[in-house]
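Quick illustration for those who missed Monday's session on complexes.
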Amino acid sequence: MDISVVGTGYVGLVSGVCLADKGHRVICVDLDEAKVAQINAGQSPIHEDGLDALLQANIGSRLTATTDLADAVSKSTLTIIAVGTPFDGSAIDTSYIEAAAKAIGTLLRDKESFHTVVVKSTVVPSTTDEVVLPILEQASGKRAGHDFGVSMNPEFLREGSAIGDFMEPDRIVYGGTDEQTFTVLNELYSVFANVDKIRTTNKTAEMIKYTANSLLATLISFSNEMGNLCAGLGGIDVVDVMKGVHLDKRLSPVLENGERVVPAITTFIEAGCGFGGSCFPKDVKALISHGQKAGHEMNILQSVIDLNHAQPLQLLSLLGKHFDSLQGLKIAVLGLAFKPGTDDMRESPAIPIVRALHKEGAEISAYDPVATDEARKEFPDVPIQYAASMSAAVQGADAIVLITTWDEFASLPDIINNMEPAPLLIDGRRMIDKNSVPRYEGIGLSLS
Ligand code: UGA
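Prediction with uridine-5'-diphosphate-glucuronic acid bound:
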């Protein structure tokens, strides 16, 4: 099938490259000439595991990039819109998607064959039918569901494992205005055999995306609330509590052979210093705002956000149990990215933690295997000693604050146990065994 993809950001490029690898012919379109040149040269403008290799395997054959939208639309039967929808504090900003719809619609005016426009960007319910579709109709002078089709098809990619998530998806969800559109989408995804596919309305497809992310974010805040309570009550470790909770067969089923399945979802009920990234915080806030505008208070999701906002500062409270003041203390921060496997610092819990440490007068050293450059951009005003390794970062530290679960941090006890005096470890992710170092504090644990 011939496909054009508008927007070569995270979602657009991963989708384009993977669909080409699956056998479709794909033209990626972006306004940015430098990005287009880079893609055509086989270099991905974004860092994602496995993307460069897949791009190089397909570029020039089934995959090309261009700035020429007219050419791309004329050569394809389906156009995927994958431009950003940032949250401006009160609603998602649909201006990029509206501009893309207008440009595509104008080109459809002269296109004789049926063309399908697919919205892949994350948009709140009814945006596809009530914003994108009317723009396409107006710009093309044609009728949706008759002369062209409109489909909403959310993505469920995780940063760091986006290629695997695209190639072996949990599910594929798509809405559509008419039968012909569904036929096109069926063909697009026929290359994904044995994957559950949900054919639904555009509005429901939009809601599935937000509900999925809201559920995961809610589980995290729920666990964090339980962890904070365990710590407050004293004498209870949230890790032991959640182990007991996991063993409910509805969460971790037991197979007929007696083997216990430990589904990935159980990691979301482990307490920590909060969620970040470009999706959970933005999507939950956007859904709250959308719900409120429709007269629904969204109390649970508001609490999810409020708790997550305060959660990183739990680590400061734990420091406060041991030090009257942080003035002049050397604090080592381990992990800056919002999660391991990425250099992305958007909404990372490291941001409020580092800022609070600086405000309290601490001398900060920091180590992250890949996010140092991003951190320099994030904290131009904070004097941070960026270390080249974990052991360099913690040398001479009074306390260590662990924020991101990079695998290499598992060897932290070996380093701490060779230090004299041993620094206090504040474990923001309950990654390290509490008995493996002399001075330990963690989320959801109150040591006397
Ligand atoms: C998330 C979803 O997991 C994807 O399914 C979705 O497609 C994507 O958002 C999106 O909407 O585009 P992502 O933001 O890449 O993916 O990252 P996650 O691995 O889900 O982690 C998000 C945040 O939650 C991170 O800050 C992570 O540290 C935190 N987290 C995750 C926890 O605090 N506890 C956990 O148990 C799991």
